[in-house]
Amino acid sequence: MLTKERLRAVQNESNVCADIEGFDFKSYDTRDIEELRRLWLQYGVLRFKQAGITDTQQVAFSRHFGEFVIHPKQKQEGGHPDHPEILVISNAMKDGKPSGAMGNSEATWHTDTWFYERPPAGAILRAVTVPPSGGDTYFLSTYSAFETLPPALKKETEGRQIFFQNVYDKTGALRLGKSEPRTRDFREWSGMVHPLVRTHGETGRKALYLGGTTDGAWIVGMPLDESASLLVELWDHTTKGQDVFVQQWDQGDIMMWDNRCTMHRRDGFDPSTIRIMHRTTTAGERPI
């Protein structure tokens, strides 16, 4: 049986990701899982290079890190035929229809399902098929984003809450189960209010919480123009001045991230090539 002495983390060139060495997905015990959880909370993102595990092994491993939650895209084009816990991210077509979610387009910076009352705690993403180039995934620390805010800007965030509309997605399409709003003022639409700076439920550290877009986001109580201006400043600081880790995928790679203190994005790629990823998602708490 694997012991903690053989399991180790090697920090990558960024402050947000570490490579895990010495972990056997076929043979591990509770001590190994406890150590992985400690490292996950420490770094925010863990990478397992070319792990080469099966869907069944991924589901079994993921179960150790929390209750499964269904990603909204699993209710549409991203369902797995045998494992309801898995979201299939793929641009492959089957019988003239998408066999998975997201296609080949770019995915901009975001925290997963930020518009939910209880956004997920984490995600585990495994590369099944990768294109020759493109489709890279980028990660940054929202702990660092908060901690490096200039004092005046940090003061602006104190005690603030942020509203996210949940009617339209980032492409402008209606979300599942939503209908067209009757007013143009998105602040009156269905949505969710979260703290602009959230306190991590396990580490107690503070992280900036910006969701996934400035469109349809409002810092509660501020005039709309002032809110928009402050959000642009916070987004610029977070995405342009932070240490970023870039994952260039190999088949079998696994990335495991803490959704409560990180953001990520994805490059687009050539639609004539195929990229298939299998993802599991674990439940989180309401941000405080």
From TrEMBL:
GO biological-process terms attached to the record: sulfur compound metabolic process
MF GO annotations: metal ion binding; taurine dioxygenase activity
GO terms for cellular component: cytoplasm
Pfam families: TauD (PF02668)
InterPro entries (alphabetical): AtsK-like, TauD-like_sf, TauD/TfdA-like
Keyword annotations: Dioxygenase, Iron, Metal-binding, Oxidoreductase
Domain TauD/TfdA-like: 19-281
Superkingdom classification of source: Bacteria
PANTHER family named among the record's database cross-references: ALPHA-KETOGLUTARATE-DEPENDENT SULFONATE DIOXYGENASE
Protein name: Taurine catabolism dioxygenase TauD
Organism: Pararhizobium antarcticum
